[in-house]
Design a protein that fits this description.
15 strands, 13 helices, globular, 416 residues, 30% helix, alpha/beta, Alkaline Phosphatase, subunit A
């Protein structure tokens, strides 16, 4: 095995890829960090629903008569909606969310989204992750800048696990100056395991970094293996979730279980990210049952299991979900919905003022629709995220996090 510098330096990041033993990479200039992580502090978890989730069938405005006339075969019947407040209710596949809402841990923001009107998945995701709608020149992500904003006020050393993504690559949301770490699997990242012989690939990488005269490569390599040693010490192969955390068998649940493991291991995680696809329901979307219902059941059950798994740690964690845009108010001719505009976001956490659907409802009359076809946006998604990052991880310089948005804390919704 002869790994080269060109192979590992990709997109401005150091990638340990091309092997099933260590499928992970770190961004450039990872900070040298202490192996002792701070247990205090609040943590933020972000879930991106890729493909444009149908907010109208997720958080159902079941008292809105036009909802049923616009969706004759895919609307959720009133008697099967899980009531929230007498006007909105959850899709019945999301039963595991209802107690979280009732306990005041889960809040919902409806009619929210990006002010940019694109209906392109690629552009909309890029704009939402960069935090600068309509501006393609932004190179970093909003969550990375939020951590930069925090650093302007709090000068402290952080571990290599400060910003973590469960996936093959560091996502746009976390890319930028602050080092971020991506891993497809916690156990593979902690290669070797406690009491096991390190894999040959791991030895090859360590040897390459040790012998390298390239300062960037050498420093990143040191930090990579420092992170591996930190994680290995937590014995990830023998992690046992809390007894009442019944994770379903799907990719999102697996990623959230590993994020819970990292959060509970006191490794210094401040921000974690994962995503889940399968929301682009142009055809055969279904109503109470079907394609969307199956995805929603996995989604809600995975998040609820994550919440239970955290136990006492949940008091310091806030989780937020987002999707690039919603879907059309009218169903289409193939029993699905097309690319729309406004959507719904979920916010779950120990400090969340839940049990409420936030945001101004724009209505579903034909004259109230965006471009005559979509739920209109009344809350900019950056306002939601701005409140969350300022009140959780301490990113109070919102102009750094969301440049040009001109967010005013006095106009926050009061979510946290």
């Amino acid at each position: 095995m002869n790994p080269s510098r060109r192979f590992f330096l990709r997109n401005g990041a150091l990638a340990l890829a091309g092997t099933t033993v260590l499928p992970a990479f770190l961004t450039r200039n990872l900070l040298a960090a202490s192996a002792t992580a701070k247990a205090e502090g609040k943590r933020l978890v972000v879930i991106f629903q890729r493909g444009a989730a149908d907010g109208l069938n997720i958080v159902v405005p079941y008292r809105e008569s036009n909802y049923y006339s616009m969706r004759p075969t895919i609307a959720i019947p009133q008697k099967q909606v899980l009531d929230l407040d007498g006007f909105f209710g959850l899709h019945p596949a999301m039963a595991s969310f209802q107690p979280l809402f009732a306990q005041g841990r889960l809040a919902i923001v409806h009619a929210t989204g990006s002010p940019d009107g694109t209906r392109s998945h690629f552009d909309a995701q890029d704009y939402m992750e960069s935090g600068t709608p309509g501006l393609k020149s932004t190179r970093d992500g909003w969550l990375n800048r939020a951590l930069q904003s925090e650093d302007l006020l709090h000068h402290q050393q952080h571990t290599a696990f400060r910003a973590v993504a469960l996936g093959a690559d560091v996502p746009r949301t976390l890319s930028g100056k602050i080092p971020a770490l991506a891993m497809s699997n916690v156990q593979d990242f902690a290669v070797g395991g406690r009491g096991a012989k390190p894999a040959p690939a791991s030895n090859a990488f360590e040897s390459m970094y040790d012998q390298s005269t390239d300062s960037l490569l050498h420093a990143a390599g040191d930090s990579t293996f420092e992170a591996i040693k930190m994680l290995r010490a937590t014995d990830p192969a023998n992690y046992k979730p809390s007894p009442d955390a019944n994770y379903p068998n799907n990719g999102l649940a697996n990623n959230l279980k590993q994020i819970a493991q990292l959060l509970k291991s006191k490794l210094g995680v401040e921000a974690a990210f994962t995503d889940v696809g399968g929301w682009d329901t142009h055809q055969n979307q279904g109503s109470v049952d079907g394609q969307l219902a199956n995805r929603l059941r996995e989604f809600a059950d995975s998040i609820a299991a994550f919440w239970r798994d955290l136990g006492p740690e949940a008091e310091t964690v806030t989780l937020v979900t987002m999707s690039e845009f919603g879907r059309t108010a009218h169903q289409n001719g193939t029993g699905g919905t097309d690319h729309g505009h406004a959507n719904a976001m979920f916010v779950l956490g120990g400090s969340v003022k839940g049990g409420k659907v936030y945001g101004k409802w724009p209505g579903l009359s034909e004259h109230q629709l965006n471009e005559g076809r979509d739920l209109a946006i009344t809350t900019d998604y950056r306002q939601v995220l701005g409140e969350i990052v300022s009140k959780t991880i301490g990113a109070s310089n919102l102009e750094v996090t969301f440049p040009g948005a001109r967010l005013n804390p006095r106009q926050f919704l009061g979510l946290v």
